[in-house]
């Protein structure tokens, strides 16, 4: 598929996989996907598996991502993990502001932007998640919600930092529900986000930012979603937990 931006497909393993299970999966993925050059492939295991997974994917085409980090560099923040600690395992990406964290940990746009700035300061690329609830979509508020989340979560990023940030559009009603957004719905939301980036930055910057779609992405719908001009990859939950389904999503996207 001829795309303006290089596709980035990331697996968000969420709170799944012991270290042993993570090693099995990533070893299989490494073999299965060894020849893929057209897509940036990222796996985001839980913190506990980062160290071991990082050893297996060293010198491979798979990059490592974390699922969250704290906005501070160090200190009295019990239970938290700082960017510098992620760097020890060659973590290149970090998912920030996932809707599950917005919902259960009450993460705000202001907090997410602090985390994004801290990630960039450590040369880790943030994958910043945005997306509307079903009630918001049905109430005609999708654009308003995306506008607020994009402005708030990305506040303070320089142009260069913005270009190295990935945005994941994940409509909350499509996460883990089996209800994927249609490719037209995804394209509409992605185009809206890109237009907003033009107004916040400029045309050239907006054209360089990769916007992933997330929410029930499967091997069977990946190709159609990725064929949309403003869909530059996927953030995959459930289907990233097995080598066959994640591998097929990547292969079907090329
Ligand atoms: O939340 C998601 C990825 O971050 C999407 O999860 P599912 O692919 O399981 O719907």
Automatic annotation (TrEMBL):
<keyword id="KW-0963">Cytoplasm</keyword>
<dbReference type="Pfam" id="PF00121">
    <property type="entry name" value="TIM"/>
</dbReference>
<feature type="binding site">
    <location>
        <begin position="12"/>
        <end position="14"/>
    </location>
    <ligand>
        <name>substrate</name>
    </ligand>
</feature>
<keyword id="KW-0324">Glycolysis</keyword>
<comment type="subunit">
    <text>Homodimer.</text>
</comment>
<dbReference type="GO" id="GO:0046166">
    <property type="term" value="P:glyceraldehyde-3-phosphate biosynthetic process"/>
</dbReference>
<feature type="active site" description="Electrophile">
    <location>
        <position position="98"/>
    </location>
</feature>
<protein>
    <recommendedName>
        <fullName>Triosephosphate isomerase</fullName>
        <ecNumber>5.3.1.1</ecNumber>
    </recommendedName>
</protein>
<comment type="pathway">
    <text>Carbohydrate biosynthesis; gluconeogenesis.</text>
</comment>
<feature type="binding site">
    <location>
        <begin position="237"/>
        <end position="238"/>
    </location>
    <ligand>
        <name>substrate</name>
    </ligand>
</feature>
<keyword id="KW-0413">Isomerase</keyword>
<dbReference type="InterPro" id="IPR000652">
    <property type="entry name" value="Triosephosphate_isomerase"/>
</dbReference>
<dbReference type="InterPro" id="IPR013785">
    <property type="entry name" value="Aldolase_TIM"/>
</dbReference>
<dbReference type="InterPro" id="IPR035990">
    <property type="entry name" value="TIM_sf"/>
</dbReference>
<feature type="active site" description="Proton acceptor">
    <location>
        <position position="170"/>
    </location>
</feature>
<dbReference type="GO" id="GO:0005829">
    <property type="term" value="C:cytosol"/>
</dbReference>
<dbReference type="GO" id="GO:0006094">
    <property type="term" value="P:gluconeogenesis"/>
</dbReference>
<dbReference type="InterPro" id="IPR022896">
    <property type="entry name" value="TrioseP_Isoase_bac/euk"/>
</dbReference>
<dbReference type="GO" id="GO:0006096">
    <property type="term" value="P:glycolytic process"/>
</dbReference>
<dbReference type="GO" id="GO:0019563">
    <property type="term" value="P:glycerol catabolic process"/>
</dbReference>
<feature type="binding site">
    <location>
        <position position="216"/>
    </location>
    <ligand>
        <name>substrate</name>
    </ligand>
</feature>
<keyword id="KW-0312">Gluconeogenesis</keyword>
<comment type="function">
    <text>Involved in the gluconeogenesis. Catalyzes stereospecifically the conversion of dihydroxyacetone phosphate (DHAP) to D-glyceraldehyde-3-phosphate (G3P).</text>
</comment>
<feature type="binding site">
    <location>
        <position position="176"/>
    </location>
    <ligand>
        <name>substrate</name>
    </ligand>
</feature>
<dbReference type="GO" id="GO:0004807">
    <property type="term" value="F:triose-phosphate isomerase activity"/>
</dbReference>
<dbReference type="InterPro" id="IPR020861">
    <property type="entry name" value="Triosephosphate_isomerase_AS"/>
</dbReference>
<comment type="pathway">
    <text>Carbohydrate degradation; glycolysis; D-glyceraldehyde 3-phosphate from glycerone phosphate: step 1/1.</text>
</comment>
<comment type="similarity">
    <text>Belongs to the triosephosphate isomerase family.</text>
</comment>
